[in-house]
Amino acid sequence: MGDVSTPIQRRLSGSGLIAEITPDPWRSGSWTLNIDGTPQSHVDLTDPTELHFDYIQRIGHVVDSAFPAGAPITALHLGAGALTVPRYIEATRPNSRQQVVEIERELIDFVREHLPLPRGASIRCRYGDAREVMEALPAGLLGQVDLIVVDVFRGARTPAHVTSVEFYESARRLLAPGGILVANIADGPPLTFARGQLATLRHVFAEALATGEQGVIRAKRFGNVVLVASAAPMSWSSKLAGLGPHPAITVSGADAAEWSAAGSIVTDATAIDSPPPARNLFRT
User: Fold this and answer.
1) Does 5 have pLDDT greater than 80?
2) Measured between alpha carbons, how far apart are the two ends of the chain, in Å?
3) Which domains does the chain have, with CATH numbers?
4) H/E element holding 112?
């Protein structure tokens, strides 16, 4: 492992953005990955089941609720960050098959050098644009993927081309019966982008929901919204409301239809990047 007792940085040649790994001052053995000044991931190398960020905890709850405890799954992660969710699945579901798609090869190298993956983990990394790589995956994966996690950011914004009907339809074709797609996005009042994303997922999939911190879902402040969709009934989704982090709101069923009504279904022709946060949002 590299020396990360002090912050270390690397400029990513593809985007020109600065990636920085900083030690967590309150939790020994943990680090935060920041890109362009935006916290992207938190990793606890001593306990990869310890999920620190609000939205990552919610993704963990979705995975744990949707699939039998300990059962290995086939997962596709679009966007790498510090590989927090792949590490969690490896720790809680040994023998899972996972693929990660990341456009910045240097980011993966940087993370793996200083925050190495567990030895023997079945986590394969592919490099390139998330949508292009996903749409070029081997035909043998069609209908075989249990979980797709879409966590694609360019700095603090989700790129437009991974937010459309066409993109989500391509992802849906990879999913196994009962498979789920989870998308992490960030938005602020009045949540036009997030509502449009839920409307788009409801158009493509049989069911879709949104979950997040109460103030975010009620359009009181900027933050992360976790969207979940499946072509099969998500009978397990009722568990999410009680799992936190609290205070939390999950909107599904008729509530999801009402919450997303102010959003427009997004196509490749109309897609835009997610809105940027205020520049001082992450300063301490």
Assistant:
1) no
2) 28
3) 53-259 (3.40.50.150)
4) helix 105-114
